[in-house]
Specification:
The complex is a heterodimer of chains A (813) and B (222).
Chain A: H1 2-16, H2 19-48, E1 59-65, E2 71-72, H3 76-85, E3 89-102, E4 109-116, H4 120-124, E5 130-131, E6 145-149, H5 151-157, E7 168-171, E8 174-181, E9 194-197, E10 213-218, H6 224-242, E11 250-255, H7 256-296, H8 298-306, H9 311-347, H10 362-389, H11 405-440, E12 451-457, H12 467-481, E13 486-492, E14 502-509, H13 518-524, E15 531-539, H14 541-546, E16 551-554, E17 568-572, H15 573-579, E18 589-591, H16 593-596, E19 602-608, E20 623-627, E21 637-644, H17 652-662, E22 668-672, H18 673-680, H19 682-716, H20 718-726, H21 731-760, H22 776-802, H23 806-811
Parallel strand pairs in A: 4-9, 6-8, 15-20, 17-19
Antiparallel strand pairs in A: 1-2, 1-10, 1-11, 3-4, 3-10, 5-8, 6-9, 7-8, 12-21, 12-22, 13-21, 14-15, 14-18, 16-19, 17-20, 18-19
Chain B: E1 2-13, E2 16-28, E3 33-37, H1 44-51, E4 59-64, E5 67-68, H2 74-84, E6 85-88, H3 100-110, H4 115-128, H5 144-156, E7 162-166, H6 174-189, E8 193-197, H7 201-204, E9 209-214, E10 217-221
Parallel strand pairs in B: 3-8, 3-9, 6-7, 7-8
Antiparallel strand pairs in B: 1-2, 1-4, 4-5, 9-10
Helix pairs in contact in B: 3-4, 3-5, 5-6
Classes of the chains: A alpha+beta (813), B alpha/beta (222).
């Protein structure tokens, strides 16, 4: 033990006496360890750490599976049947969440409010930290609303009030009693801050509705497979019983962990893999440095052997140095990881699950330690082995620094591997970069420049005919339109790129009153030629103008389209093409009452351009626009939009004032459309940023490697170069000799890297947009950049070689 | 102590076989002080390296203290070397990153000598060679003579029965060289067998006899 300590002390001293070498080696390894520890922190927090629920592996999300295999949310009747007839679950609960305007706390806030049915707490295995859960009498339709609140909400908005009887929240005019406070770590559904009993609200009896997530806890003694099999059997039975009245033909169980993180798993693992490649490049770089150092210390090695050192002791000596290097790098790497995690959490696109669980914990420290010691042992043993294989130095010959041809081959091989690995990373980054450019160039179908969006969660207005809601919209939109600099103002219930809207089956009518009841609608469903699928939106006329969505045919909504006038609709071009392929849609009748319960038919009056509703990279979907004045019931979530002649963000304050003037209890979430567009690309930008950083760092390390090997080679070949110059070599030929060596190594690395990249781009194929995985531009440009950079990296040592004075060089021997 | 019979050493190259040593047969008794002399390229250092078991690529028979070195496995050969041999090099070959004290300790640590004994023997050596005041200095802080003094101290610290010295004064000026040679003679007088390679007749006179090498052949022994 004492010997090991002495070895470590001597190694530390020896490294301190070579500060440049030590600094470069430590920083290089620290970069590799830091990148890996950072990514591992994310993977650990998001993918590996157990969920904070008891027996979390028994908690599952249950999906309906459609005829074509698509997954969807549940309808209430299907859920009820599942709950009553299955035996494989200890609990099943409906869950849905949406933003609501909540007042009664310190100030009105928008809070994600979940509706959950009985069993929710049992399914999740949690209990309020104080207060209580819902009582049976609170879980019946029409009961006064009671709520569980999140710990953060309780602290921030309720001042940590422990006497919950003194707290009364409101959603509009509806009072909500707070009965319990959830544990601080509880975050399901993600972001939820209030939980209300689902049973207190009217239920939708349609089996084709799909509004609810279903969460279940698989019973003790029942396997996931058995519970899934039972659910499937039940789904098939329900399909047989209800036929087309339900879309469900099967059910699928997904473990909660998979449900929460499955979406980001592959991206995180790819990024961790990229960090791993970066680590390998860093190790190759440090190995090269160590080999060069070992080359210069061959004499020391020979002395040690002559003094009686066994092979094991020599290896221990090398390993002691790499242990000191790698542990220092490990400490630096952890510091880098602390900064990296902070950076990643800030830079993450906002939809990374379990983001609050990301951090540098003991597992990350252990990971860093294993990585450091693993690198230390591997590098130390490998370099010692190499040095021992190089053979003895002639100790009679004094301080000879002659390098071996074999050693230079090994160093060349390491440069080749660095170039190859860097190329793989750079091709990945290049493909993502091209995809990002393609995504930013997409025609959204609307303008984002100068457009401001203000989203509100409107509470129930309490009147049956929607007059208050109409008046509210009128007041806000009128106020916004009157703001100086505003060119157009309007609103819609689900903004493109923002919130997801509802969609469903529409019915083409031959005459307006063809289906004026749900029974007649169901009868119409028997004829597939009368049906179609589309996005259902409720908008105002000003919405199209504010977003510059072009009118292609007919007209937009007009002032004459009042609440009592015949209900009118505007459809998107693709909706018109799907519904009436060879005819003009104008004047056609549509029944879409299944979306909002209002069975008054629509007459199509206009056709507008297609809009990318679901996101920049999602194709336009057929979209149907109802007028919000005529269909106010679907307008509880609403986004007001305005277009401005100047900078849209400057209108945020005035817009907030307008909203507060209409109702001070309703907070608005204000963003520019440019921000929304940017946020929509955030995930792509995040992946590109990380892979770009890794690729750039890899390139830098690779160039350092090329430079180092060339410089070392030049130093070793000083005599040879001196002889060449003495024999009349012209400067260009000396430079050409050095650069040619770098070009050869780089070319071999590029060839191997291209093969590797072709094999590995399959992993990023799912993240590409508008570019093939074998994109010729990327596969040509990256090697060219790498080769150009390699020539530059070799240029400096080549110039130094060219400057060799033959007399000095020959005398130095 | 040492018996050599037809020791031969050559290098293979594309041009053919280049002989370095030819049929060296010699016996060296315990307590002898032998000087090996000859022009450059005669094979002096090669012979010394074979004797010191730094070179194992030779033919013939080499007996050390009754053991046939050629028949020993590498590990046993190293053990034999560690038990009997100490080295002094022309260029001192102290380890730059270690202090004088640590340089002295190194051969002992390679022989698994317990720490307390190591410390005692290092202290003795520092005393004996009168370098106590230098113990915390690094080789680069010493003069050539001082470095070689440390190198001799290092060569003797494990109590070898044989010291192999490769031009021990080659890098020193005359007064330092004299000091080192007198030190080697003193060790020889105490019973240590010394074999030195030297170009200097003056240094050779410290020994009992001289072996002359030329083109790998032993030309005579005085």
């Amino acid at each position: 033990m004492n010997g090991v300590v002495v070895d470590l002390r001597i190694a530390l001293r020896s490294l301190l006496r070579s500060p440049a070498f030590s600094l470069v080696a430590v920083l290089t390894l620290a970069l590799g360890i830091g990148a890996n520890s950072t990514l591992f922190s994310v993977v650990n927090g998001v993918l590996l750490r157990p969920l904070p629920y008891p027996d979390a592996d028994r908690i599952v999300r249950v999906h309906q599976v459609g005829d074509e295999g698509g997954l969807s949310n549940f309808s209430e009747p299907n859920f009820r049947d599942l709950k009553e007839q299955s035996r494989g679950f200890a609990g099943l609960s409906l869950v849905t969440a949406a933003a609501s305007s909540i007042s009664g706390g310190n100030e009105p806030v928008r809070a994600v409010t979940a509706r959950v049915s009985a069993d929710f707490l049992r399914v999740m295995g949690v209990a309020p930290v104080f207060g209580r859960g819902f009582l049976p009498e609170e879980q019946v339709e029409g009961a006064q609303l009671s709520a569980l609140v999140g710990h953060g909400f309780w602290e921030r908005n309720l001042g940590g009030e422990r006497d919950l009887s003194r707290v009364l929240l409101h959603s509009g005019e509806i009072p909500i009693r707070v009965v319990g406070v959830m544990p601080p770590e509880f975050d399901f559904p993600i972001g939820a801050e209030l939980w209300l009993p689902a049973e207190a609200f009217p239920m939708n009896i349609e089996r084709t509705a799909h509004n609810w997530q279903v969460m279940g806890r698989v019973a003790e003694g029942t396997s996931l497979e058995a519970a899934g099999s039972e659910a499937s059997t039940l789904a098939r039975r329900l399909k047989e019983e209800y036929g087309d009245a339900t879309w469900m033909s099967d059910m699928r169980l997904t473990p909660l962990g998979e449900q929460m993180v499955g979406r980001v798993r592959s991206a995180l693992l790819i990024l961790l893999g990229a960090a791993g490649v970066l680590f390998l490049i860093a190790c190759a770089n440090v190995t090269n440095l160590l080999l060069a150092r070992a080359e210069e210390r061959r004499q020391e090695l020979a002395i040690r052997l002559a003094l009686g050192a066994r092979v094991g002791r020599v290896i221990r000596h090398f390993v002691a140095e790499t242990v000191v290097l790698a542990t220092t790098s490990g400490v630096l790497g952890v510091i880098l990881a602390l900064a990296g995690v902070t950076f990643l959490v800030r830079a993450q696109p906002g939809n990374l699950p379990r983001v609050e669980e990301i951090g540098v914990d003991r597992w990350v420290l252990l990971f860093s330690l294993v990585l450091s010691l693993g690198a230390a042992l591997t590098l130390g043993v490998a370099v010692a082995w190499r040095a021992l294989k190089e053979g003895n130095v002639d100790l009679a010959g004094g301080r000879s620094h002659a390098g071996s041809r074999r050693g230079s081959r090994v160093r060349g091989g390491l440069v080749v591997s660095q170039v190859g690995l860097s190329l793989v990373l750079l091709v990945g980054a290049g493909l993502l970069g091209r995809s990002f450019l393609n995504a930013t160039a997409v025609d959204l179908g609307f303008e984002t420049d100068g457009v401001l969006a203000m989203t509100v969660a409107l509470p129930p207005m309490g009147d049956g005919d929607g007059t208050r809601l109409r008046n509210f919209h009128g007041e806000v939109i009128g106020g916004l339109a009157a703001l100086p600099g505003v060119e157009a103002a309007g609103g819609i219930n689900a903004l493109p790129l923002g919130t997801s809207g509802s969609n469903g089956t529409f019915f083409k009518l031959n005459f307006p009153d063809e289906a004026s009841s749900m029974e007649e609608l169901r009868a119409l469903a028997a004829d597939p030629s009368r049906l179609g699928q589309g996005e259902f939106r409720v908008a105002t006329s000003g919405y199209f103008r504010a977003l510059s969505i072009p009118l292609l045919e007919g007209r937009l909504f007009e002032g004459s389209d009042g609440p009592d006038a015949p209900h009118v609709a505007v459809v998107s071009r693709s909706f018109a093409e799907v519904a009436w392929p060879d005819e003009s849609p104008l004047g056609k009748f549509i029944q879409y009452g299944n979306m909002d319960g209002d069975l008054r038919p629509f007459t199509v009056v206009g056709v507008v351009g297609d809009v990318r509703e679901a996101g920049v990279e999602s194709e336009s979907r057929p979209t149907f626009y109802a007028l919000s004045d005529q269909r106010p019931r679907s307008s509880s979530a609403f986004t007001y939009v305005l277009s401005a002649a100047g900078e849209a963000s400057s209108l945020a304050g005035p817009a907030r004032t307008v909203l507060a003037g209409a109702d001070p209890g309703i907070p608005g979430n204000i963003r520019t459309m440019d921000q929304l567009f940017s946020a929509n690309l955030a995930e792509r930008r995040f992946n590109l940023l990380l892979l770009g950083i890794f690729g750039g760092t890899a390139l830098l390390l690779c160039l350092m490697g090329i430079y180092g090997v060339m410089a070392f080679g030049v130093a070793q070949r000083t005599r040879e170069i001196g002889v060449r110059v003495a024999l009349g070599a012209i400067p260009e030929s000396v430079i050409r000799m050095v650069v040619a060596q770098a070009v050869t190594l780089t070319a071999i690395g590029i060839a191997l890297g291209l093969a590797g990249a072709m094999a590995l781009t399959g992993f990023v194929e799912g993240f590409l947009y508008g570019v093939e995985r074998f994109d010729p531009i990327t596969f040509i440009a990256v090697p060219l950049v790498l080769m150009g950079a390699a020539v530059l990296a070799a240029w400096l040592p080549a110039r130094r070689a060219n400057a060799v004075d033959p007399i000095t060089a020959l005398r130095s021997e | 102590m040492i018996r050599l019979h037809n020791i031969e050493r050559f290098h293979e190259s594309r041009a053919g076989r280049t002989w370095v040593l030819r049929r060296i047969t010699e016996e060296i008794r315990a307590g002898e002080f032998l000087s090996i002399m000859g022009p450059s390229g005669a094979g002096k250092s090669t012979l010394l390296h074979i004797l010191g078991m730094l070179d194992s690529d030779w033919a013939g028979e080499y007996w050390l203290q009754g053991e046939s070195v050629g028949e020993l496995k590498p590990r046993k050969r190293q053990e034999l070397s560690k038990r009997h041999i100490g080295f002094v090099f022309q260029h001192y070959h102290l380890l730059d990153d270690l202090t004088v004290e640590e340089n002295l300790e190194i051969p002992l640590s390679y022989r698994d000598v317990p720490r307390s004994e190591r410390q005692a023997r290092v202290a003795d050596a520092l005393d004996r060679f009168q370098i106590v005041g230098k113990k915390d200095l690094y080789p680069s802080q010493l003069s050539g003579g001082q470095q070689q003094l440390v190198a001799v101290a290092r060569a003797t610290i494990a109590n070898p029965t044989l010291i192999l010295a490769d031009e021990p004064t080659g890098s020193l000026h005359s007064s330092q060289g004299k000091m080192i040679m007198e030190l080697l003679k003193e060790l020889n007088d105490e019973g240590t067998t010394i074999i030195q390679v030297t170009h200097s007749d003056e240094n050779a006179r410290y020994g009992d006899r001289v072996m002359h090498l030329r083109d790998g052949w032993m030309v005579d022994a005085e």
